[in-house]
Request: fold
Amino acid sequence: MRYSTTQAFALVALRITIGWHFLYEGGVKVLNPHWTAKAYLLDSGGFLKGFFDQMAGNQSLLSLLNSVNAWGLTLIGFSLLVGIYTHYSSLAGMAMLLLYYLSHPAFPGIEYLFPTDGSYFIINKTLIELFALLVILTFPTSRIFGLQRLMIRQRNIDK
Reply:
């Protein structure tokens, strides 16, 4: 499939900016030895609040979740940023964002201790980023610009 220069730029820019967001959020957590998701989980709302409260209350599970969250964000972000294995990282990122959304849904009447980053009646920035990753999943941007393009090119040269 052929894209115009503007379409290709827009798709790659979307992938890179989401990648940077994930990498930054993950890196901050990885580099802070005191970071924990406990307060975030305890602040959850909606119909899955009990599920997230149980996660926060189980110390061994919480420790595992802290590592998976921090390193997952970091690795997904790196993958999207450099354009390698973007299909898998898009799926993993969408799964993480879905969990974030379900823990803090933008439903009317739910109030959170932490300030929200834009909530517009059911739709919030987390849900928008999830659907942006769906776009990245659908369009092979790493074949336009990224390490995966270089790997494919090298594989074709070696044949």
Observations:
- Residues 5-158 form one domain.
- Residues 7 and 13 are 10 Å apart (CA to CA).
- The mean pLDDT is 90.
